[in-house]
Specification:
Helix content: 25-40%
CATH architecture of the largest domain: 3-Layer(aba) Sandwich
Distance between the termini: 61 Å
Number of helices: 12
Number of domains: 2
CATH class of the largest domain: Alpha Beta
Number of strands: 12
Radius of gyration: 22 Å
CATH superfamily of the largest domain: Glycogen Phosphorylase B
Strand order of the largest sheet: 3-2-1-4-5-6
CATH topology of the largest domain: Rossmann fold
Order of helices and strands: EHEHEHEHEEHEHEHEHEHEHEHH
Shape: elongated
Largest sheet: 6 strands, parallel
Strand content: 15-25%
Length: 341
């Protein structure tokens, strides 16, 4: 292979119409906002379209990076009619550049739906024009891997995700119906339903909530109805806990990040958003996921890891939470006392 094929381009290719592909999952989408921001800053006047899944449409729209959002229909390869409908949607606009931040077999295969006019393509799809040639890409943290991918496109700077676009991300206005006294400790006990090995036991969260409440914090558990059983266990152990189950949608998490003094949770999507939005965070990991590749990043994040989360006691999590908790969150008049306890 000629040596010059290993050189990153000095400048990105010209483009007036750009498609960015990022299908999920939640935490991955949050981290990909860094690369989306870098592409928008590089092409400030381009028409940018996002191809994503329905749960992340609102986040893509709120970012302000895109003029258009397309939803991935996930057409079955054995269904020609569905493939043709999806191809028509993808090719309705003539793209100059596609930035595939999903880099899966499926998203790479979408490249061939653009035949015969395949645009410039950043990713790892076979024969794409701007491949990421780093042999260590699969060992890199998601943010570093995508920054490296953009470097192979000629975009040399990828800033961290900027979530200031989220509603009430500054925390200047109270969240409607949520204004507890003193410092707030958010608890995120959930994870994907099929990833039970990523969950710290609910009874440990309950004991943690009780310990935090004894120190002046108001625990608040976040999640969807899938986490109702965990929330019930936490509230039983600590009745002072406020349940925000099914009341904490993606776009509200920025406001909660501004309001809370600390967030504690499993390796799950909400913790990625809370950490990136600036909320001090403690995240618990088992060997089911590798923080070197996917850890939450933000101004103040601590990772606690055990091979099995059943072996992680409450004390080190409480100690980390108290040491990280801030005293400047809006409305947190008692946070200083709680953080120093």
């Amino acid at each position: 292979m000629p040596a010059d094929l290993h050189l990153k381009p000095e400048t990105p290719p010209p483009a007036q119409s750009i498609l960015i592909i990022k299908l999920g999952a939640f935490g991955d989408f949050v981290q990909a906002l860094a690369a989306m921001r870098a592409v928008r800053q590089t092409y400030p006047d381009a028409h940018m379209t996002l191809l994503t899944r329905r749960p992340y449409r609102g986040l893509g729209e709120a970012s302000g990076y895109f003029q258009e959002i397309l939803l991935d229909d996930r057409p079955a390869y054995w269904n020609p009619a569905a493939l043709l409908r999806f191809r028509k949607k993808l090719t309705a606009r003539r793209y100059d550049l596609v930035v595939d931040l999903q880099t899966s077999d499926r998203s790479g295969a979408y490249r061939f739906l653009f035949l015969p006019h395949i645009p410039a393509w950043s990713g790892i799809a076979p024969l794409c024009s701007h491949p990421q040639r780093n042999p260590n890409r699969n060992a890199m943290h998601t943010l570093d891997r995508q920054a490296d991918q953009l470097a192979w496109l000629g975009i040399k700077e990828t800033p961290p995700p900027d979530l200031s676009f989220l509603p009430n991300a500054s925390g200047e206005d109270p969240i409607e119906g949520f204004d507890p006294p003193g410092p707030v400790a958010l608890l995120a006990p959930g994870a994907a339903p099929h990833r039970v090995d990523k969950r710290w036991p609910a009874e440990r969260y309950g004991a943690l909530a009780a310990a935090l409440a004894a120190r002046g914090f108001t625990p608040a558990v976040i999640g969807t109805r899938a986490e109702q059983a965990e929330a019930d266990a936490i509230l039983k152990a600590c009745p002072q806990t406020i349940s925000l189950i099914d009341k904490s949608p993606i776009l509200l998490l920025g406001a909660l990040a501004a309001r809370a003094s600390i967030a504690i949770g499993n390796d799950t999507g909400p913790m990625h958003l809370l950490a990136a939005a600036g909320c001090p965070s403690v995240v618990v990991y088992s060997d089911a996921s590798d923080p070197a590749r996917c850890a939450q990043r933000g101004p103040s994040v601590e990772i606690l890891r055990r091979p099995s989360l059943a072996d992680l006691p409450v004390e080190p999590v409480l100690e980390a939470a108290l040491s990280r908790a801030r005293s400047d969150a809006p409305g947190d008049g008692a946070a200083e006392t709680g953080a120093s306890a």
